[in-house]
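Troubleshooting log. The previous structure file for this entry was overwritten by mistake, so regenerating from the original sequence record. Sequence copied from the archived sheet and checked twice against the printout by T.R.
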Amino acid sequence: MKTLIIGSKNFGTKNDPTFIANNTNSDICFFEDLIFDIKTNSVQVLNKTENILEKGYDTIICLGWYKTGKLSFYRDVAYSLALTFDHAGIKYWNSEMGTQRSTSKLSQMVLLALNGHKIADTIFSLDGSKLTDYITDGKKHIVKTAMGSCGKNNFLLDSKNEIIGLLTSGKRPFNHFLVQEFIENDHDLRVICFGGKPHLVLKRSRKDNSTHLNNTSQGGTGEWVEITPELKAEATAISKLFGREMGGVDFIETIDKNGYVCYYCLEINAIPQLTSGSDVNRKMSELKSVLNEN
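Regenerated output below.
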């Protein structure tokens, strides 16, 4: 049997991953060294330059991910691994890793990508310095915290040095940033779902060219618009995928190379500013109507 041990460098006093690997003739790598390369329909998990999904492991044993407090983000990294292993048909211990829920943008991107929903190309590592070779100088990137909300700690950068500086600085909350390709836009769309179905679409536009953020919480304007059949189908499928009967699915609307409108999903919010932000009365009226129908 070919086995891989994935451990944490901060394992404390229990379950030394190196000791276990040496005594079971297993390969070993560490959560802190892994790189997630996430694209629509594709997720690779790299240890240095090797994709561990292609190494032919019969079983992967993950240790030290059940952390709490400021290190609890390891749980979402483990969940992201579990989703990827399940999709690749790779057995892993303990399987409880895969019975969690998405708690950050990292696992959201993984789950969306594995299920064929369009996303911006995304890379992530617990150690941001590992991403140096994946960033192109002069190309626009979005660098945002995996645990962020309301557009906070979300940066548009095109300097490789600036990006790496941010990834390796002490400014980032809990040291967890995603790096994504920037998709040109002048607005985004928040689709508010009740009962697992889209009911309202808020077109959010940035206040001016001094920012790339369309969030109303960052000064953007909001306008209710009609939903297209394509957007309705995407939002419904994503709401079902995450088990979020009530939520806000955020999209970038753009034109593909063939001239067709397409939608890139940014995230799905479990708490989409229902009692704050734009037109609270409209949101409450729609929610009340849906609840009365049920």
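The helical segments are 17-24, 73-88, 105-114, 160-167, 229-242, 280-293. Archived copy saved in two places this time.
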